[in-house]
Amino acid sequence: MNDKLKIKLSIADRVYPLSIKPEQEEGLRKAAKSIEGVIKQFEQSYAVRDKQDVLAMCALQFAAKLEQQSINSDKEIEWSKEKLVELENKIDLHLSERS
Q1: Which end of the chain is more exposed for a tag (fewer CB within 10 A), N or C?
Q2: How many CB atoms lie within 10 A of CB 35?
Q3: In sequence order, which residues have a C-beta less than 8 Å from that of residue 35 and are 6 or more positions away?
């Protein structure tokens, strides 16, 4: 039994046939649509005609966004750790005062 779904995605005027798990379809279609939107934006804003350049800039934009999210997440985790340490110190102080 083959549980793969065959779809075709169009990116930068090319069609890419894929065999995917059904649960991946929505995410892949949204990603392709997002890529197409960024490509259109670059082509209009910078009058770039070479698809290779547009795709490289598109990839850079998506990668930069992921990296920034990772940096922000790391900062949030560090902030949370600091707050937990502060809370633990307050609890320890309170418990030691009761003894």
Answers
A1: N
A2: 20
A3: 11, 12, 58, 62
* Other CB atoms within 10 Å distance of the CB of residue 86: 10
Residue 40 to residue 45: CA distance in whole angstroms: 8
User: What are 91's two structure tokens?
Assistant: 């609890």
Q: pLDDT tens string for the chain (99 positions)?
A: 568 999 999 999 999 999 999 999 999 999 999 999 999 998 888 888 788 999 999 999 999 999 999 999 999 999 999 999 999 999 999 998 886
Helix (H, G, I), strand (E, B) or coil at 76: helix
**Domain segments of the chain as ranges:** 5-98
> Cβ distance 55 to 44 under 8 Å?
no
